[in-house]
Design brief:
This protein is mainly α. The chain has one domain. It is built from five helices and no strands. The radius of gyration is 18 Å and the shape is elongated. The chain starts with a helix and ends with a helix. Belongs to the exbB/tolQ family.
Length: 112
């Protein structure tokens, strides 16, 4: 769970909440398996992916602004570390997206 703190609480906590909501909807979908639950899981999964990418873009814009005003050279280690941290939220968003898609595949498969 350290990656949540490293990725920035502003984007990682909402993504974690979205994951919990998707899991709860999946459990609900196993019981009633309605089209509304299926569509809601799909929509939330896609939102999680886009929200994660938004976190990366906002972080990258801030980093580029700081790099442009920095005096002197920026070391490659600092740049690589920044990219690693910046890519945590889109990666988590992609994982949530894939989990949501897997859940919708399962719900489609077990549909009565």
């Amino acid at each position: 769970m350290n990656f949540i703190l490293d990725g920035g609480l502003i984007f990682m906590v909402p993504l974690l909440i979205l994951l919990v909501v998707i899991v709860l909807l999946f459990v609900k979908g196993l019981k009633d398996n309605s089209e509304k639950t299926y569509k809601l899981i799909n929509a939330l999964a896609l939102f999680a992916f886009v929200f994660g990418v938004l976190g990366f873009v906002i972080g990258l814009l801030g980093a580029l602004k700081d790099i442009s005003v920095a005096t002197g050279d920026i070391s490659p280690q600092v740049l690589a570390g920044g990219f690693k941290v910046g890519l945590l939220s889109p990666t988590f968003g992609m994982v949530i997206f894939l989990i949501g898609k897997l859940f919708t595949i399962i719900l489609t498969w077990v549909k009565k």
